[in-house]
Amino acid sequence: xxxxxxxxxxxxxxxxxxxxxxxxxxxxxxxxxxxxxxxxxxxxxxxxxxxxxxxxxxxxxxxxxxxxxxxxxxxxxxxxxxxxxxxxxxxxxxxxxxxxxxxxxxxxxxxxxxxxxxxxxxxxxxxxxxxxxxxxxxxxxxxxxxxxxxxxxxxxxxxxxxxxxxxxxxxxxxxxxxxxxxxxxxxxxxxxxxxxxxxxxxxxxxxxxxxxxxxxxxxxxxxxxxxxxxxxxxxxxxxxxxxxxxxxxxxxxxxxxxxxxxxxxxxxxxxxxxxxxxxxxxxxxxxxxxxxxxxxxxxxxx
Length: 302
Hints:
Blueprint: E1 2-3, E2 9-14, E3 20-26, E4 37-40, H1 51-59, E5 67-71, H2 89-102, E6 108-113, H3 115-126, E7 131-137, H4 145-157, H5 164-175, H6 184-194, E8 195-198, E9 201-204, H7 227-230, E10 238-243, H8 251-260, E11 265-269, H9 281-301
Parallel strand pairs: 4-5, 4-6, 6-7, 7-10, 10-11
Antiparallel strand pairs: 1-2, 2-3, 3-5, 8-9
């Protein structure tokens, strides 16, 4: 276990197939009794996506939380998989459960961004007892094909970036229209979350093989829905955040999710697309209120 000056401990653990995987552990040393938070990133993203949110939740004056954020296999500081067929939701869900066991997380409130939210749906089927609350960030049981094609387009681009300034400029050019709410520090943080420095260049921090399943998609592709898995979330406190400009989670699906889970808290991230950054004051406030409501409910039941 390595300690970082950035507010977290670096934790490595071994997947069931032997791959070495990575997580960040915020607030672990304080022996906190409240439910921890587990953060699961999107398809090509990693634990760094949640850094500012994790710092805010783990250092807040009242009821600071332990926060664990994962790098899936093939992302960030986790090892790449020689068998690219194992870049699959079921394998990644098993990795998350293995990581939780290694880090002694028996129950938690899960925050799942995009693919992380899909993994959370699977966890509700595989081990529902681990989920004490769920926050889905711009994902639901129906994924819009147009949004997936957009994701494939920018993941395939792999621009030549000679500096971090190039990386920031690239992100603003590609994503700026969907994210007018972001300020310059947000774009800088996003660049350092998405990219890494390698051989003097700034490159995307994931195994390019992750994109392979998207290559066969076209506008006529039928993406199976997962409403059956969503049913598993109905007994669990749930909040769903939708980016106002999201091409992945439609307004119609957002409304249907609420109809099928009447207790679901709904939040729209104004001026953001897919997937919203969560560390802004409004969203952090909503997340804190949701987490605290779960804690208060648990206290009433004891």
